[in-house]
């Protein structure tokens, strides 16, 4: 698993209508791709807005990370190296964004998409 993760990147803020084929095409300019995985919410069946791209070679990871901040299907994507342990990775990503924790970006696009707003509302019930 670690070996696969060393060849993989996490892609955030992916358009909900994006297909694995479109992501494959976007990243194929960098290197050969073994697999593209778009993550779906297990309860709703809707895409979560992020994906993993596994390259054939770990030499493709750095150039892929350089695509962070570029546009894919009219959305600015973030690309970071995939880490093996996800819970630690989530926290790490919060810090990566400038100390906002999971708030601004963590779950699902802050306030843009309803999910972020829901999150804020939930805080009010406590």
UniProtKB/TrEMBL annotation:
<dbReference type="InterPro" id="IPR012677">
    <property type="entry name" value="Nucleotide-bd_a/b_plait_sf"/>
</dbReference>
<protein>
    <recommendedName>
        <fullName>RRM domain-containing protein</fullName>
    </recommendedName>
</protein>
<dbReference type="InterPro" id="IPR035979">
    <property type="entry name" value="RBD_domain_sf"/>
</dbReference>
<feature type="compositionally biased region" description="Gly residues">
    <location>
        <begin position="113"/>
        <end position="126"/>
    </location>
</feature>
<dbReference type="InterPro" id="IPR000504">
    <property type="entry name" value="RRM_dom"/>
</dbReference>
<dbReference type="Pfam" id="PF00076">
    <property type="entry name" value="RRM_1"/>
</dbReference>
<feature type="compositionally biased region" description="Basic residues">
    <location>
        <begin position="90"/>
        <end position="112"/>
    </location>
</feature>
<dbReference type="GO" id="GO:0008143">
    <property type="term" value="F:poly(A) binding"/>
</dbReference>
<keyword id="KW-0694">RNA-binding</keyword>
<feature type="region of interest" description="Disordered">
    <location>
        <begin position="86"/>
        <end position="126"/>
    </location>
</feature>
<feature type="domain" description="RRM">
    <location>
        <begin position="7"/>
        <end position="84"/>
    </location>
</feature>
<dbReference type="GO" id="GO:0005737">
    <property type="term" value="C:cytoplasm"/>
</dbReference>
């Amino acid at each position: 698993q670690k070996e696969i993760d060393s060849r993989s990147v996490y892609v955030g803020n992916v358009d909900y209508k994006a297909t694995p084929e479109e992501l494959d095409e976007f990243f194929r300019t960098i290197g050969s791709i073994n697999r593209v995985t778009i993550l779906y919410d297990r309860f709703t069946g809707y895409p979560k807005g992020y994906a993993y791209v596994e390259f054939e070679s770990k030499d493709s990871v750095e150039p892929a990370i350089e695509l962070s901040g570029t546009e894919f299907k009219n959305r600015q994507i973030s690309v970071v190296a995939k880490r093996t342990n996800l819970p630690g990775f989530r926290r790490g990503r919060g810090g990566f964004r400038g100390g906002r924790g999971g708030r601004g970006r963590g779950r699902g696009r802050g306030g843009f998409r309803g999910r972020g707003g829901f999150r804020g509302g939930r805080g009010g019930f406590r």
